[in-house]
Design goal:
The protein has about 250 residues and is mainly alpha-helical. About 75% of the residues lie in helices and about 0% in strands. The protein has three domains: about 35 residues; about 90 residues, no CATH class; about 100 residues.
C-alpha cells in the first residue's frame, strides 16, 4: 500500500515537471511569435512607405514638373505624418538639462527633417541635388524650390482658386460635388494658397444649388463648425432626407 502510494506521488511529481516544462515551452513559443509578429508589422510599414515613395521616383523634379512633384511630395509626407516639416524651421538643439518634452520635440523634428530631406534629394535631378544638398532644413529647401519655380506655381495656384470659386453643383450627387471641391482646395493649398477652414466651408456652401438653401440657413443659424469631410456627410444626409420627402409627396 505504501509502495503504491509513493509510486503515485513520484509519478505525479514527474507529470507536474513535464507540465511545467511544456508550459514553459509554450510561453517561450508565444513570446517568439509575438516578437515575430511585431517585426512583421514593422517590415510591412516600411514596405508601405517604400511603395508610396515610388510616386516621387516616377517623375523626378527637373524644373518643368514642379507642381506635380510638389503634390506627390506632400502626399508622401502626409503618409509619413511629417508634413509639418515643410514649414517648421530648425529647432534649437536642447541643452543637457532640457525637459523631456523639449528633447522629444527636437528628436521628432530631426527625424522628420532627415526623412523628408532624403525624399527630396532622391527625387530631383542631379543639378538640383547639388544646389539643395548644402541646405540642412527641409523648410529652406522648399522655399528655395518655390523661389526657383514660383512662376509656374503662381499660375497653377490662380487656376486652382479660380476653379474653386467658379465650380457649381449642376447635377449628380452632393458627395461627388464635395469631393471635386475638396480636390480644388487641396490643389490650391499645395500650390501655396492659405485657406482658412471657414473659407473652405463657405466656398463649398456657396457652390450648392437652391435646393440646399434650408441646410445653409440652418448651418449659419446654429453656427456649426465642421471640416469639409464632415460637411460632406451632413449634406449627404440632407440630400437623402430631401429625396425621401419628394418620394412621399409624389405618392
Amino acid at each position: 500500500m505504501c509502495i503504491s502510494l509513493w509510486a503515485g506521488i513520484i509519478a505525479s511529481r514527474e507529470i507536474l515537471k513535464l507540465l511545467d516544462r511544456y508550459c514553459s515551452i509554450q510561453v517561450f513559443s508565444l513570446q517568439i511569435g509575438v516578437s515575430a509578429f511585431g517585426h512583421m508589422l514593422q517590415l510591412s510599414e516600411k514596405y508601405r512607405s517604400l511603395q508610396i515613395a515610388t510616386i516621387l521616383n516616377q517623375k523626378p523634379l527637373d524644373g518643368n514638373n514642379y507642381d506635380l512633384w510638389k503634390t506627390n511630395f506632400y502626399i508622401v509626407l502626409d503618409f509619413e505624418r511629417i508634413k509639418f516639416i515643410t514649414t517648421t524651421p530648425k529647432s534649437q538643439e536642447p541643452a543637457t538639462n532640457a525637459s523631456e518634452e523639449t528633447t522629444k520635440q527636437f528628436a521628432n523634428w530631426q527625424r522628420a527633417n532627415i526623412t523628408a530631406r532624403c525624399y527630396i534629394l532622391a527625387s530631383v535631378v542631379e543639378r538640383l541635388q547639388k544646389q539643395l544638398d548644402s541646405l540642412e532644413c527641409v523648410s529652406e529647401m522648399i522655399q528655395t524650390l518655390d523661389g526657383m519655380f514660383a512662376k509656374s506655381s503662381s499660375i497653377a495656384r490662380q487656376a486652382a482658386i479660380g476653379a474653386l470659386m467658379n465650380t457649381r453643383m449642376t447635377g449628380g450627387s452632393v458627395r461627388d460635388h464635395c469631393l471635386k471641391m475638396m480636390a480644388h482646395i487641396s490643389t490650391a493649398e499645395v500650390m501655396g494658397a492659405k485657406l482658412e477652414q471657414v473659407m473652405k466651408i463657405d466656398m463649398i456652401l456657396e457652390s450648392l444649388p437652391n435646393s440646399f438653401s434650408q441646410f445653409k440657413m440652418n448651418y449659419n443659424m446654429n453656427k456649426l463648425k465642421l471640416t469639409p469631410v464632415e460637411l460632406m456627410h451632413e449634406l449627404e444626409s440632407a440630400e437623402k432626407v430631401s429625396g425621401e420627402a419628394r418620394k412621399c409627396l409624389s405618392c
